[in-house]
Amino acid sequence: MAQVWGHGAVRGPAGSSASADAQNVSMVSDRIGDALVAAGRVSPEQRDWALHVQRRTGSHLGAILLAAGIISRQGLYQTLAEQWGVPFVDVTTVPLAVSTRRDLDPERLARDLWVPLGRHRDGTYVVATARRPTATLQQAIARELGGPVALLATTDWDVDYALRHLFRDQLLDAASHGLWRRDKERSARTVLSRSQALILAACVGALAAAAVVAPRATFAACSALVAVAFLLSVVFKFAVCLVGAYHETFVEVTDTDVAALEDADLPVYTVLVPCYREANVVPQLMANLAALDYPAAKLEVLLLLEEDDDETRAAAVAARPPATVTFVTVPRGQPQTKPKACNVGLAFARGEYLVIYDAEDRPEPGQLKKAIAAFRKGGPELVCVQAALNYFNAEENALTRMFTLEYSFWFDYMLTGLSALGLPIPLGGTSNHFRTDELRLLGGWDPFNVTEDADLGIRAAALGKRVGVVNSTTFEEANNAYGNFVRQRSRWIKGYLQTTLVHLRHPVELVRTVGWKQAGGFALLIGGTPLSFLAMPPLLLLLMVSLVLPPSMLASVFPGWVLWVSLANFLLGNALMVYVSMMGVFKRRRHRLVLWALINPLYWCLHAVAAYKALGQLVLRPHYWEKTAHGLTALPPSAGSH
Amino acid sequence: MASPPYRLPPALTERWAAARWPTTLGRRSLLRAGLSVPYVALAIWLDLHGIRSADNVRLEHAAESLGSPVTVGAMAHAFPPVPLAIARVLPGGAAALGIVGALCAGGILQLAWERLVRAQVPHWLVAVLLVGVGGAPVFWFNAVDNLVGFLGVALFAVAAAGMLDFLYLGRTSGGYAAGLSLALAVLCDPAALVYVGSILVAVPFLAWERFRNEPSSIRSAIAVIAFPSVAVLGAWAFLEWRFTGTVHHPLTLAPRAFTFPLGVTGGFLRAASHVGWQLLAAPIFAVTAVLLLFRRPVAFLALVAVPLDLVVTVWLGLHPSTEQGLVLLDLVGLLAVERRPGSLVSAVLAIETVAGLACALVLTDAAGTGQLLHVLGL
């Protein structure tokens, strides 16, 4: 702590005569209500209303008044400071230098709501806190800092603000390299491990040698291998979808389960919303979050804004968000990815549960409550539940229709089937609900993996945790531009390849930890998906060649049975995917889309383009994050999700 | 235009609709095995006495004639592929094929039993109906004598049950069952085209009852049920064309197709009268149809699609055989028995079923009975 502390920003009574005896929340709340009335910050009617809400929800009185927009944060904490008998400090007006105390964990300080701002010349640490500054707290902080402490009151936002400035580098490093430092083998920072590189080189060498010695046999064997890999992947998906379909009558959370939840029993829920260059969707985002059916005082929305994204920040300010929304600035630094932003958000999350939404998401209002009910039913091993995703602009153009077909079967059948079979679930990019503490134990998101969500789901399974699904839907904006689609999809496929490589670094250990079933499911789903897209062009080429040339002419290259198997697999595989797509949209009652499933093979061709781009990027720019533009839809916000 | 219900429909709350019976796969399998025991015993008895089914022997020979090893050129003679593949890989020849048919019989009866239990039909009536269908000579005969035909009928029963789940209860698992079973049936028996036709005629009526407020729902229901059959037939035809230069579509396996030996009108009248007699020999179907006519006329139209389709196919000179037609009508009748039938309906169903079974056993020239007695050497 190099800074010598001055008193410029401090207001209120001098000294820190904190009450020694801790008081319970309700007593404090009652008194703060009176104090706020006495200070003229709220009217007696507003206080009584807040007390009424408090009895129903069990929230803090201040949080209720804040969430309702009746009082400002500063006003609340200034009154609290007066009540606690400590000076109030507005941290944003204090010059803050980077902390040299690397032994302090900013993540824990954020949870404990205190931050050392500097040090007096006499060696006393000046600490701002948003908690009641009891003697016990003061002693605990003094022990940790190793010197006498003077406590000041501030807001919880100010604590976070100060932490982000004082521990900027530490936070950035933890968000970027935390997982890698903790467990290098589970991070995608290194694309190929040494043994993987050796195996790959050996395979390429063997293939080259075989191609020289027996070109025809090698070609035939490779073709057969591609066909079989394609079929295996597709048949696996189809089988899992069938299981999902047979579990459709099972509902994870019923309306009765949700109705049984008392507001008073609901915990604080953190909503992370990473935004980057999405100024155009911010107003809608605020409306969508406001529609969530959850006690406002127990909702913590962290809007994760990149340091260099002034436009989105300005839009967010202009949207005049409620006090439940906190802006969290994500420090600039590589890799500049969504998972890094989420890790920063996680550091400041105070909710017992946490969910990620994208800026354009429209979750069903009851989703948070359903997630809580799912967690309570699922037991402590259930660390994450994934809500279904679907699109509100499904019928905007051919691409959005195909996207909807795909998502409908993926989230309504595939993930349900994986959950029913106890197989690892690759999380979708949004609407993943976590137990916050468990998420921290898992190591948060891997910022070097461009499908950090899928990786996290698999990592949870690999560490013996369970990921489930919840029967609630978030409506998103489907990509309606082809270039944008290829960019987004190439990132997803690259991420699947990264995830496959990361979790297959020690295949024997993986099998030993999770068993054959889970390891096989992971390999077929996460590894098989990119492979099936990569296999599409050669198989399509084969089909076209076989249309032009009779099999007898191809016999010199392909033995008859190889050609037959390849073509049959290709036809069967495509038919199966068409069929699950049809059923997926039928289940969603999007009947007008059912026949669009017939052009699924063309959609797969688009995937194939993205897959080859992903493969190239995996080699050349493995950690590059292809940003997907949102807010391109021309449809009104209310379209399609009713 | 009002927005369609894009959220997932609410889950079923009626336990009768959601539950399986027996509850676990193991128990269901055990029940299937148990129900197939008499048919398996018959198949073994026939084999021990040197009695060979002509149809199954024909299938066995067809599988052998594909050559060894099977080349891609053999595709021209490899339709229907599923029973041919079974005959090819299964040791034991025609006898083994009879046992496979017998095992399928157990499967069908379990399916019908489950459906009746879920429909809350009284236990005593379930027993009567199952004995009435499973004990009929035509059922015994088909199970052990004609694997191709029986597989087709069995899969049709699965498809019909799935279709009812799909269209009445909105369970897409039923849609999968219907679509995939029909596709498999098409690969088992060329006559399955008849079944596909029946189901496709029935779907619009049933879909109209269930999804009438949802635009395009009838078209999409037809698409999801028909697609697998169309896809497998199309894929097979394409591969056959590429590798043999010809397409032997399933109709080529029916030598009398489109010949109209009695003339177009005469043939139609003959076909109608033929199916009419079959209806008389299928009492469960007849009673169910009459009940539906008065209670749910739209569903009645779906039900009569089956005999109408039989008339058309017999008229055109296609499959199926009389015995297959009878088993088909019996099974459809079983699947269509109304939920929680009252005392009067139960009594009528029981009396008709017992009477039908008695007639079939007594009248030795009834369809199936004569053949069964013949193969038994009696």
SSE topology:
The complex is a heterodimer of chains A (642) and B (378).
Chain A: E1 10-11, H1 25-38, H2 44-57, H3 61-67, H4 73-84, E2 88-89, H5 106-112, E3 114-119, E4 125-129, H6 135-145, E5 149-153, H7 156-166, H8 168-182, H9 194-213, H10 215-246, H11 255-259, E6 269-275, H12 282-290, E7 299-306, H13 310-318, E8 325-330, H14 338-348, E9 353-356, E10 362-363, H15 367-378, E11 382-391, H16 398-421, E12 432-435, H17 436-442, H18 452-462, E13 466-476, H19 482-503, H20 507-548, H21 551-554, H22 560-587, H23 600-620
Parallel strand pairs in A: 4-5, 6-7, 6-9, 7-8, 11-13
Antiparallel strand pairs in A: 1-2, 3-4, 9-12, 10-13, 11-12
Helix pairs in contact in A: 1-2, 8-14, 9-10, 10-16, 10-20, 10-22, 16-22, 18-19, 19-20, 19-23, 20-22, 20-23
Chain B: H1 15-18, H2 25-48, H3 54-64, H4 81-89, H5 93-118, H6 123-134, H7 137-145, H8 147-169, H9 172-186, H10 192-211, H11 217-244, H12 264-280, H13 283-295, H14 297-315, H15 322-335, H16 343-362, H17 369-375
Helix pairs in contact in B: 2-5, 2-7, 3-4, 3-5, 5-6, 5-7, 5-8, 6-16, 7-15, 8-9, 8-10, 8-15, 9-11, 10-11, 10-14, 12-14, 12-15, 13-14, 13-15, 13-16
Quick structural summary:
Chain A is an alpha/beta fold. Chain A has helices spanning 25-38, 44-57, 61-67, 73-84, 106-112, 135-145, 156-166, 168-182, 194-213, 215-246, 255-259, 282-290, 310-318, 338-348, 367-378, 398-421, 436-442, 452-462, 482-503, 507-548, 551-554, 560-587, 600-620; strands at residues 10-11, 88-89, 114-119, 125-129, 149-153, 269-275, 299-306, 325-330, 353-356, 362-363, 382-391, 432-435, 466-476. Chain A is elongated.
